Amino acid sequence: MTKLLTKTDFILYRECPQNVWVKWHNSEEYNKFEISEFEKSLGVMGNEVEALARGMFPEGYLVEKRSEGAQELTQKLISERTPVIFQAVFATDKYLAATDVLEWNEKAQAYDLCEIKMSSTKGEHEEGGEEEEDEEEGKPKKVNKKKELQYDYDLAFQANVLNLCGVKINKKYLIRLNKEYVKVGDLDFIQGELFIKEDKTERIEELMPVALAEMDKAYEYLTFTKTMESPCPCYYTKGRRAHCTAFSLINPTVPEYSVHDLNRIGSSKAYLRKLLDDGILTLDKVRESEIPKIKKAKEGEKPGKPRKLNQVVAYKTKEPIIDLDGIKTELNSLTFPLYFLDYETYPTAIPVFNGYHPYQQIVFQYSLHVLTEEDFKAGREPEHREELILEGDPAEKLVESLRSNIGDKGSVIVWYKNFENHRNKELARLVPLESGFLNDVIRRTYDLMDIVNDQFYVHHGFKGSASIKKVQPVLAPDFSYKHLGVQNGTEAIEAYRQISRGELVGKDAEEKKQQMLEYCKNDTEVMYILWKFFKDLVGE
């Protein structure tokens, strides 16, 4: 039986043809590449958003079968002019498409096509834990233009398939969560409230012939190409984090640590291509004189740092680059008592509690290590405090607990403060009586990551990253998460979801709660250990 091109594989093909070729022709090897737990949770979340969005169309009929009988049932429903059809299935000799929503337009005597996406009009969701940094500016990503283009091609693919099947389509819509929506009482499905319905007709009709030509090219490539080509587009254009699923299989000559791991190389595509064209794959071969110079900072901007150069030098010498004066200045800016703080959050697409908007993080847990000046001078360890709330909206109780444990003076130390401070701003809106306290916490927050990110301490083992997951194994190798029942932020998110929804109860729930507490405690304990490492380094 001839394989048909789906819209999912078409979108993947546009990113990296070879990746989809492996998926089609070597599925056994392709399936060996694990997707992250966070990616799995996004899939579940996407299904939940789609199911909820169907509430906008109360008369809808769901085509539940994706294979046997689905096309015949779809044709029957179309011929009967069923008012709304969910997951209608259409196929040609080349393509297969399942549409989220078809809504009959009596005036146009045709169906309107609606595609449901789990993103909000705000841009992309935030990942639980550290927010992804923009490769160019080191700031959280805003509107993702690339993702918007994917959405357009997604709709154009479906419209083309339906057109080839002889189904007349009138309007083409994109339905997604409304960033301005704030939950008050029951979820509101009225257009302009929980979901926004965007008319993309003009743009999609303009794109359809272009997309159809690409669809034909994709189908021909995937069907008739007998051997896997190498390298793939990711080789020349993307940093490690953005590589396709089967990158290591397609590009076997690329070592585990390569020039693709250079700091923010994804925004230096011309330089990456030059390195690869010169046959340079490993950092020891990189010519320091050819590393792009740092652009002069504009007025009011923070000066850039020679991150790529430092990464290469540290790798070649296997010696850390240390700016003791810089580290000392950073540490001297802190005031006792020191509060090492970390939040655990649940990034649900659909607001669960009143006052929340789509994708607003639910802060359900914190860990706090408190070190007074007296304890530090006496060589005593910091005192640990914590809170975990798994029932109802945790905001008020969590802030109340935090308020009782953080005094009016002292520095609040975090790792990647953009994340924690964003949560504090949201908590201030949810608990306005404590907004003064939370805004003061924001003012007093110091980002311990700055010592690494601002290049005061560079180690080849960091591999160009300032993530605590890369820094901790190097500077605190004896500290480990491996013995814990919950070992990362994604597992903490899943634990919260299971317990808060009643999927995990009794002894199992109690055991998981203890594991969550231990995990979060580790996060602030390791921050204290890293702070102490830097403190000892400068001899204070």
And the CATH topology of the largest domain? Lambda Exonuclease, Chain A
CATH top level class name of the largest domain: Alpha Beta
Secondary structure category = alpha/beta
Radius of gyration: 26 Å
How many helices?
Answer: 20
Q: What does the overall shape look like?
A: globular
The fraction of residues assigned to DSSP E strands is 15-25%
State the share of residues found in helices, binned by percent: 40-55%
> What's the story with the biggest beta sheet?
7 strands, mixed
| Architecture (CATH level 2) name of the largest domain | Alpha-Beta Complex
Amino-to-carboxy terminus distance: 72 Å
Low-confidence residue ranges: 122-143
Number of strands: 14
| Overall structural domain count | 3
- Average pLDDT rating: 91
Write the layout of secondary structure elements.
Layout: E1 5-6, H1 7-15, H2 17-25, H3 27-30, H4 37-53, E2 60-62, H5 70-79, E3 84-91, E4 95-105, E5 110-120, H6 145-164, E6 169-177, E7 195-199, H7 201-224, H8 233-237, H9 247-250, H10 269-277, H11 307-317, E8 321-322, H12 324-332, E9 338-346, E10 362-371, H13 373-377, E11 383-388, H14 395-405, E12 411-414, H15 417-430, H16 435-444, E13 445-447, H17 450-453, E14 457-458, H18 468-475, H19 489-500, H20 506-537
Parallel strand pairs: 1-4, 2-3, 5-6, 9-12, 12-13
Antiparallel strand pairs: 3-4, 4-5, 6-7, 8-14, 9-10, 10-11
Helix pairs in contact: 1-2, 1-6, 6-7, 12-20, 15-16
